[in-house]
Amino acid sequence: MSIYIFGDFHGNARNEKFFLEQQHFPEQEKLTIKDTLIIMGDVSILRYFPEQEKKYKQDIENRDFFGKQNYTTFCIMGNHENWYLYNELSEEEKFGGRVKVLETNYKPIYFAITGEIYTIEGKTFLVINGALSIDKELRTKGIDWFEEETLSNKEINKTLDVIEKEKEVDYLLSHTVNSKIVNYFTKNNNDYGNNLKYKCHTSEFLSYVDEILKYKENHFGHFHIQKEIKIDNKKYICHYKSKPYKLI
User: What is the reported pTM?
Assistant: First the structure.
């Protein structure tokens, strides 16, 4: 049983599915429902309302793509998601915590909830969803931009309560990274380097989490770059447009 990590999927808008095809990810042939692919936010398969017929159809096609794979798909929430639809999803117990469940024409896809600690293959994962959209002024509130993309006080307090009890996990899963090291992933990055005009509340909270939580690695997406750095015995790994990273 294995765990793989994949970067932003973006509803396949930039041909991200290419890196999940057999030639790049041949390991998938031997995977089963007991193996897990974790997508690090901006999955964008839960993005459009049924009234947006053409785009909603693309959502359904992308959901079914993951639904019919051999492995189980587990998603972190990014900023380019429909948080209204996310909040409407049913919940159940999975991986030792609460998850949101997205049904497909095949098997379900699971979405993480902020502040939950999940146990997969004997390893523990704390999840902190979301990030600030740097292009939010180009979007329409309630249609393709949602305030819930950044953490609420309720989510922050829940996460702090969990950390106070647990104090240590194996991995931190998030969509963005803590504000102290953002520049490592945005410098000379054409998508982000000149666009950090807003402070990201979630990123700032992750800086505090970094100080009070013991963990080995922080896996995330958001910055459209594949890059890894190590600081004080912690690894920070940004995933994007590369074959799934085998964690376990």
Answer: 0.95
